[in-house]
């Protein structure tokens, strides 16, 4: 049953789409500004495709994050119509203050919005309706719902929106929930998606089983994630061969007996390593197959598709990721596979870094933190923070803050929490915004995952203010 909050936001999408249709659109280029991760790339591509179908000229650009300087740079272009997707709600004042008054602005974002009065600016944000943008709808979902309101024929873009949701880890409970469920229904109704109950391993259709185990991080499997040798030995002890008839075995190749044995053994491994059973059980859940994509390719599975896009994002090859979402399946697709390979290899190195530098993770009263310096690319520092927290080797459970140096000489910060901490009142988006602004930086995001950028040398001050805010939120 559709909730009242969902009905209200759907109504708001219809109203926003009507405002858009009523604009004098002749010969006006519409600018779409979106984020550079899997969710943002998919959001931008969904909007790009929907607008092209309306025969409208559109220019789509990806940003690592929307900062005050980038808003000023966009303003210099004197855009007539601009759509911010998967970003913008945290910079409403800057958008209103710097963009020309004549610019018609639409903000379709799922991050926590800045409190601001912006007359004339059209914003649709789930948080304004009491809907959790970190778990119930992604940036690409917001883009899709606007596209659907614009034209019901855009329901065939629902499957792509779910790739963004999976890339944003919105299936962390084992399945998609909230508005994502409504989008899943659209994708199923048009024959784009099949939902299966399965082990939630990365690469279930395209990667050898032992590699699928090795690369699984959500949830993190102690002793297996990041270690090829350990995964091979684990399967050997279960009498599950890694090859059959000289062909490597994929998860999809397992019969019910082997699948059950493997599932039970993984859950037991996690429980034995003090991973709470409710998190261990999350290794089993819904898997989403894109039926219009070729079998045995990374695009067939939503999780693999999202990882491929993150590989494009990490290497700052956003246009390649965008082209793949828009349907490119030739030369650029081959390039994206190479980027995916590099990305996965880099993530494997990050596993090793975590194991070899565990002493650099500091317990600081109400939070954990570590500074990777130049050791870890700032584009993936959030992923590494998630790995550390999801490994559950840190006890008691607290939020974690990770620092990394950027190529520009700034400090990128990523923070991650848990559902239990959110239930207790943690809001990392507010904490990152508060602490970063106190030291002259910028920040924001979701309650469970947020980020910031500050000047090098301000880390100690940032931690001081982050602890003040987190202590206030958790009443400790």
Task: Write up what this structure looks like.
The structure is a single chain. The protein has helices at residues 4-21, 38-53, 68-76, 92-98, 139-150, 158-167, 179-189, 209-214, 228-237, 256-272, 277-280, 302-314, 318-326, 331-356, 381-390, 419-423, 428-438, 459-474; strands at 30-35, 58-63, 81-85, 104-108, 122-124, 193-199, 243-244, 247-248, 284-290, 362-364, 367-371, 400-405, 410-416, 442-445, 449-455. With 476 residues, it is of the alpha/beta class. The longest helix has 26 residues, at 331-356. It is globular. A hairpin with a 2-residue loop joins strand 7 and strand 8 (247-248). Helix 2 packs parallel to helix 5 (139-150). The mean pLDDT is 92. It starts with a helix and ends with a helix. The strands form four sheets. The chain has a six-stranded mixed β-sheet with strand order 10-11-12-13-15-14. The chain is built from 18 helices and 15 strands. It folds into three domains: 4-172, Alpha-Beta Complex (inorganic pyrophosphatase (n-terminal core)), CATH 3.90.1640; 198-353, no CATH class; 357-474, Diaminopimelate Epimerase, Chain A, domain 1.
